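Contributing new complexes? Match this layout with guanosine-5'-diphosphate.
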Amino acid sequence: MKFREYEAKQIFRDAGIPVPNSVLITSPNEAAPALSIVADNVVLKAQVDVGGRGKAGGILPANADNINAVAAELFGKTIKGLKVEKVLVEEALEISHEYYLSITIDRSKKMPVILFSKEGGVEIETLAKERPEALRRIYVDPSFVTLPDFIVRNAIGDAPKEIGKIIRNLYTVFIAKDAVLAEINPLVMTPQGVLAADGKIILDDNSLARQGISENRDLAPREAEAEKHGFSYVELDGSIGVIGNGAGLTMSTLDIIAHYKGKAANFLDVGGGANSDRVMYAVRLVASMPGVKVIVVNLLGGITRCDEVAKGIIAAGISQPVIVRLAGTNEAEGRRLLEEHGYRMLDTMDLAIRAAVEVAQ
Ligand code: GDP
Ligand code: MN
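Output block (do not edit by hand):
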């Protein structure tokens, strides 16, 4: 789950990382009072989750003379498809230099890594590709709770010393928040010293409960529904809906779809011991994604009983065809129920998947 700029900056402030003065507003008429608290010259920053927000017109300078008009303009905007509903009124900065700073996880090395560059403000992907030598990567032993001096010195090189303290505090935030990314882009030099002009924190979704967050607000409605039922669910861009039980069987189903030149729209792993209700929710969820033309259900009955699965498929009552491969416990009864209700149950996964690919075409 991702924190917006205003949330990240509050976390930075609490952790002793200097940030510009700002007030969050949710309507244009709050802008003038906010300006009077913040500064004579401000920037209004749309709190929308898009990259390159500044370039897309999401950051507008304002002062006492034009604040109402500028605020009305920004609140009226849609930036890369997202409506502007929250705006950060922030003091305008006199920037003499921009740096890039982030801490993330290097998955292959299984270590946190500090990324620092004296050339900030740019797209970091572009910098990493075009001038990789300009981006320092300093790996951190994951057992460190705070950063040792030598790591901080290595990271900043000949950049101003005060950045060292910011790196330390950012690392504390990174650990305390169970983050997978804590980023300041740009970190700026101003007459007031070094400040975080922008901020982004992404939490590890596996630690939301530990962080006291009950709901992942970034999930799309179908993903949220899947999480509620404890399904593993992923969306792709084809037209075949896939339901399996167990990661292995579900992945094999995707492989065979690809083998027959089909394309999966999504896949859902119902897990072990699925009863008819769970199967019904699974079928409805997979079918509710726009573009799903046919669903293939590929389940192995062990603890899961094939007659329960059949009842769930029938109860779902969706409009798309459902092609079924069921094997195992109570298979004959499952087949009888499905055929009685006009569903196709095929004998092998190969046959069922091939049939689904044909229907999708
Ligand atoms: P982003 O476009 O969403 O990454 O928004 P940023 O907050 O990073 O701002 C984009 C750019 O605007 C920065 O890299 C600065 O170069 C520039 N900028 C100019 N004046 C200001 C200012 O007063 N405050 C901030 N935050 N950025 C400014
Ligand atoms: Mn930025």
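Reviewers usually confirm one structural detail per submission. For this one: The radius of gyration is 26 Å.
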